[in-house]
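COURSE: Structural Biology Practicum
ASSIGNMENT: Worksheet 4, Part C
STUDENT ID: 0417
INSTRUCTIONS: Below are two proteins. For each, the amino acid sequence is given first, followed by its structure token string. Answer the questions at the end about the second protein only.

PROTEIN I
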Amino acid sequence: MTELRMPKDFLWGSASAAYQIEGAHKEDGKGTSNWDEFVQIPGKTFKETTGEVAVDHYHRYKEDIALMAEMGLKTYRFSIAWTRIFPNGRGEVNESGLEFYQNIIDECLKHGIEPMVTLYHWDLPQALVEEYGGWESEQVIDDYVNYAVVLFDAFKDKVKYWITMNEQNIFTTLGWMTAQHPPGKFDNEKMYYVVNHHAFLAHAKTVLKFKEIIPDGKIGASFAYSPSYAINADPIHAMSKIDFDNLKNFWWMDVYAYGRYPKNTYRYLEKKGVAPTVTAEDAALLEAAAKQIDFMGVNYYQTSVAEYNPLDGVGPYGEMNTSGKKGTGEITGIPGLFKNPSNPHLETTDWDWTIDPMGLRYACKEITSRYNLPIIISENGLGAFDDKTEDNQIHDDYRIAYLNAHVYELMKAVDEGCDVWAYCTWSFTDLLSWLNGYQKRYGFIYVDRDEEGGSLDRYKKDSFYWYKDVIKSDGATITEE
């Protein structure tokens, strides 16, 4: 046992995303999203899985939230599907969609669970893609803000915590650089930075509108943060670490927190001819929003190693492990700057993600030092193969060990001065893991379904009872690793 404790008002939580859990992809007026279209392309997902049914949270949300209440969850982070509110991206509000999320919020509040709403978790209305290219056009900015304002007005008296974007760095990289996410474009670096700039401006305008409508609310973005270590003390690798951090981390975090891009990286991209155009109006908008931001949202799963990558070294594209066959992921990098080899000091998951609990504390301390912002850990969890016994038991001691080690390091970060408001595991129930199908399980609740289907019945894993005790004790049951 440890003497560390979290504050009594700490938000112990769990998280989800609309496309990954809801299903009901054509019900009650919902429109088609970019993901509804993308998953129809053969070979894009594991065993051609889709979110058409997912784990049927749309029809089972009361059951799922009752389980959250039984666990003692303090906050539930979920995303809203833009296509349920505006089936065509804008125009007339779909009242049935608005009512669905109103019901989720009310159900949470009934059980004393703080709702935490993510505005955008990757599911863009396909109508906007077809009309003007979605994020590729600056038209998306005002459509996004309009969508957000409808939600702020609808839920301003009931929702305090809001997240504008989920992992902007991931959906843009996989969408325009590696073709693994919609719109499935490859090596389109110029457009990649244009798309990111549009997303930043949408975020910024939304933050300013939010402060007009919900002045006492809290808003930020959630970034997929992978802190880095230089492979050794050789200065050439230390320089590669700086280049990696600026290009892969601070490019987003500096905009959220400061309203500006890292100068060194902007200069590098200028030389390549791919830097986004930033007008004086853009710069003022980004800076104004940064001054209004309330927290840095962090989705933390792993750290990276930075090593110098010669000009004839590995490129940015390599095999990503989406099968769960350990060792199939390939090393990637940027020639002349860095590459990211595996860390010999750390174990990995079956999907080749490094397991680095101390990296979570490292991330919190770096954010505290660099940005002096409160932190919400909006995702952290272990994707694994789980087995259900004949008597419906799921003994996921490996997940308990993973979460215990990460929470311990988070508690140490708080003890060392980091202001952390919430910790949301990914995820509450098992769900569709985007490219990885249903075999990669993250939840406290086992959902009986696989790539072929299933009963969708819910079963509590051992980790459910473990997290319940952690929450009840404010972390007193966490063991020192």
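PROTEIN II
(use this one for the questions)
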Amino acid sequence: MGQLSFPGFCLHWQVLAAAYVFLGLVTGAQSAAAPNTVVLDPATLADAKMRLGLRPVDPTLRTALNSLTAQADKWLTQGPWSVTYKKDPPPGGDIHDYSSQAPYFWASKSPDGCPYIQKDGERNPEADAKYPDHATRRLMFDSSYVLTLAWYYTGKEQYARKAGDILRTWFISPATRMNPNLNHAQLIPCANTGRFIGIIDWSQGFTSVVDAAAILATGAPGWTATDIEAFRQWNVDYLVWLGKSQFGRDETAATNNHGTYAIMQSAGVALFTKNTALAQKKANLMKSRIAAYITANGSQPQELSRTRSFHYSTYDLIAYTRIAAIAKKVGVDLWGYKGPQGQSIHGAVDFIIPAATGEAKWKYPELEFDAREASDIIRASADAGNANAKRALGKVPALLGGDLYHLRPAAEQLSALP
């Protein structure tokens, strides 16, 4: 467990949080057990919650909380969503299967549109129109996470009940639950009924959903013991599919961001389901990826070859930073790991800092450069001790719609792609 350090003494964070609750200094928030989150650090969450209960409130935290609750209030009137709400069943005929269309493939000029042609980085609007699961799973990811965090920090029951309803509808209720597989993700019309790389639809966002469920499990109103066990079992089954299916094995072996995300996702789900040995195995596997796919100067060649090279360089780093957080919980230090030529996660962050801060122009292909995509990655690296990242703080353009990092301190995908 984490600790909070102060001059002259060190106090376990659970004791400190309990003391503040006992003294009545935490206002407007529930007293709950520590969440067994897989990416977010429980100590950091508890510290932020404690400081929100003090007067005067830290202005940075107050601003973040205002943004968080504003987003949560909007989600209260939306959803829930389900894979069963789509008009047509996916290939195979089971409406409970998740399905999506490869976003960068476009119909050719032939009468039937076949074959579909790849245009890397250019998203085909047809994909979401024909296969809405891709869009609705993002709504489910974002809403359940924001609503849960809003409940954690404010104690307002309506946030927890809405988050629980969203998760229960997508994962648990027999009539609407998703089957725990991605057999029909990112299919290409005329070519196949799904591809292993479709697992990327799920990889990053789902670990935030798992963290949301872990927070709800600390005593959220409406999230019952039955819900907790049913969601745990869904994850057990999904982890089996990730490990045994050919899709799962192929995605794990991918040499670009797909493989990084596949390993990160499996590590997070393993930790959530208390399969610590598998989580450790996946965390240690990431060392070989750092050595193989990050160069000595911090570049990621597989991502630099893309038409959206800055986006994919930062996107891959989200997975690296998130599994570093997971690994820490099972005794593996990925932040401190260096490959034979000094390759490291921090080094990869250093590589993107000059472009993200405007100190140098990004000199690789990029259809739509957006420095803000690097914001969370730089802060995660700074939190882990990177002096270069600490100096870069505040130099990346501000995020639109409110910055929640101080209340959910982990790198998140800050754009709609992929």
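ANSWER KEY EXCERPT:
Q1: The radius of gyration is 21 Å.
Q2: The CA atoms of residues 68 and 256 lie 33 Å apart.
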